[in-house]
């Protein structure tokens, strides 16, 4: 498999994922590359990840994970971070979620919308979870919803039909990649910012460098001229 270079003819992106840490597990290196190239990137988190640490009750976990996400974003040059406050672990696909995401698209007017893998499985074959699946599918529909003035009228302002690309990180059907050789250290720093979450998680996924490097090397091997890369499934809209 050979991956094409990610399109570069855009200036604004909106990242929409379910939880703090979702983009950091491989995708944030691309954000570091984009911001270093002068592109504007905003993050929208569907939840605050409040159900993600077993040893902390949600009212304590949510604020902690929000703070970790803001530090993770700062590591890759992003200061605009918003949260929708849907409930972690029980995100539902439906009109309320589509409306919230469409409103954000109308507000921020991105040319690229990025989300996480919403296929049934991860590239390595493991099963995905409902929050990721429901969020990603809502993102796909919200990209269309945002451009139709008769769908969710008044949500987020005027319709926006300027989304040109939908990019899916960690997809088992990757088509494109972003060279992150010059910014890989920032990708590692962004995942490491989830310090308490990683400590609770333990195992292979708790070591940012060890987890991210082989994935980046595998993608880099498929992108001409790259050694480290982030892969995406990209669709033109």
Automatic annotation (TrEMBL):
Q: Does the keyword Cell wall biogenesis/degradation apply?
A: no
Answer yes or no on keyword Zinc: yes
Q: Which UniProt keywords apply?
A: Zinc
Query: Which top-rank group of organisms is this from?
Result: Bacteria
UniProt-listed Pfam families: PIG-L
Protein's UniProt name: PIG-L family deacetylase
In its UniProt entry, the species of origin is given as Pseudonocardia xishanensis
